[in-house]
Amino acid sequence: MTKILVTGGAGYIGSVVVDMLVSNDIGEVFIVDNLSTGHKEAVNKKAKFFEADLTDSEALKIIFNEVKPEIVMHFAGLSQVGESNKEPEKYHRNNVFGGECLLKAMVANGCKKIVFSSSAAVYGEPMEIPISEMHALKPISVYGETKVLFEEMLDNFDSVHGLKSICLRYFNAGGSSENGQFGEMHEPESHLIPNVLKAAKNGSEFKLFGDNYETKDGTCVRDYIHVVDLAKAHLLAAKYLLSGGQSDTINLGTGKGFSVKEIVEICKDVTGKNFNIKIEDRRAGDPAVLVASNEKAGKLFQWKPEKSIKEIVESAWGMG
Ligand code: UFG
Fold first, then answer.
1. Which numbered atom of ligand 1 lies nearest the CA of 280?
2. Contacts of 235 (CB under 8 A, 6+ apart)
3. Is 112 in contact with 47 (CB distance < 8 Å)?
4. How far is CA 169 from CA 137, 206, 209, 290, in A?
5. Which of 65, 160, 199, 282 has the CB geometry, 3.0–4.6 Å to 275, for a possible disulfide?
């Protein structure tokens, strides 16, 4: 069986991918996670777990010696945009230096395939919609910068060491795993769907950041993609690399945009609950519209997202 090392396997998207790998018997799965933002309960019992930080090269040496993975799926990293601008050094250390330690350990152990969790944050304020992979990279947050830096590092490791990578640039992930067991649990939670559902559950007020954007109803438009669709794309990316595929970069989105107000309405509809909305100032660094072109993923992996926005909200609500 293929040995797969998953970094960040106790986190939101990592845990859903691990669940899909083990329940489909796709490989022997090993997880490395420092549990700084991940959750021990989200560590799949069918995977072997190592609690370690990627910046700990000694720990990585031991793990790589024991596991000898053929491929790495790299989810570990910090992902709060606001926090990244306040604590840049923390983001560079985790997302860039931690990533560098991982790549060095891979090369030292002859492991030359990696699927990396990148982000639409690499594009910054888009110049055209839908956003293709060819769009200029002009991140407007430290988080986005660290994703660009690591993508560049992957390029360098390919040139010098022949390390092949697929960078998956996620748009807005939502929903939970198929069995409803693994889902979004950030602390603090900054994402839209969990925050709207929190208001629905508690009857509390939902704070909407800005209704004066140049969009159909004045609120920001995003491309929400079900985490199960994302997870399937990771499996296809791993398969592609394992069968000798070259390095590439792929957007993962649906190509459809929904405004914040539309999401609020869908959440009200799914939950049957009503709650108050308070219009707040714009949140710094929020582009008005982010919608992916997902043509390349279709061509390269024959991947197509299957789940609707309603299914995303329904599965996220099931978690609550
Ligand atoms: N929003 C609210 N209220 C909330 C939370 C969010 O109005 O309580 C709004 C935001 O202002 C934004 C939209 O809902 O307009 C979506 O916000 P999210 O925080 O859910 O998602 P983002 O689009 O900000 O973030 C996503 C990814 C990040 C990535 C970023 C790129 O989650 O990883 O896109 O800009 F960096």
1. 7
2. 17, 20, 21, 24, 26
3. no
4. 12, 28, 24, 12
5. 199
How close is the Cα of 119 to the center of ligand 1, in Å? 12
H-run or E-run covering 51: strand 48-51
Q: Give the position of tokens 């099931």.
A: 318
- How many helices (H) and strands (E) in the chain? 11, 14
Q: Select from 13, 75, 81 the residue to mutate for testing ligand 1; criterion: most ligand atoms less than 8 Å from CB.
A: 81
Distance 105 CA to ligand 1 centre (A): 34
Cα Rg of the chain, angstroms:
19
Residues in the ligand 1 pocket, defined by CB under 6 Å? 79, 81, 119-121, 143, 172, 190-192, 195, 207-209, 220, 222, 260, 283, 286, 290
pLDDT digits (tens, 9 = 90+) for 176-210: 988 777 777 767 788 999 999 999 999 999 999 99
pLDDT interval class at 85 (50, 70, 90): very high
Contact between residue 175 and residue 316 where contact means Cβ atoms under 8 Å apart: yes
- Confidence class of residue 319 from pLDDT cuts 50, 70 and 90? low
Distances (CA, A) of 254 to 27, 37, 124, 229, 230: 28, 27, 19, 9, 10
Please report the domains of the chain, with CATH numbers, ordered by start residue: 3-171+226-252 (3.40.50.720), 192-222+255-319 (3.90.25.10)
Q: What is the pTM of this model?
A: 0.96
Q: What is the rounded CA–CA span in Å between residue 91 and residue 262? A: 32
The predicted-structure confidence for 42-81, as pLDDT tens digits, reads as follows: 999 999 999 999 999 999 999 999 999 999 999 999 999 9
Ramachandran assignment for 244, one of left (phi > 0), alpha (psi -120 to 50 degrees), beta (any other): left
Ligand 1 mutation target, pool 186, 286, 309, 312, most atoms within 8 A of CB: 286
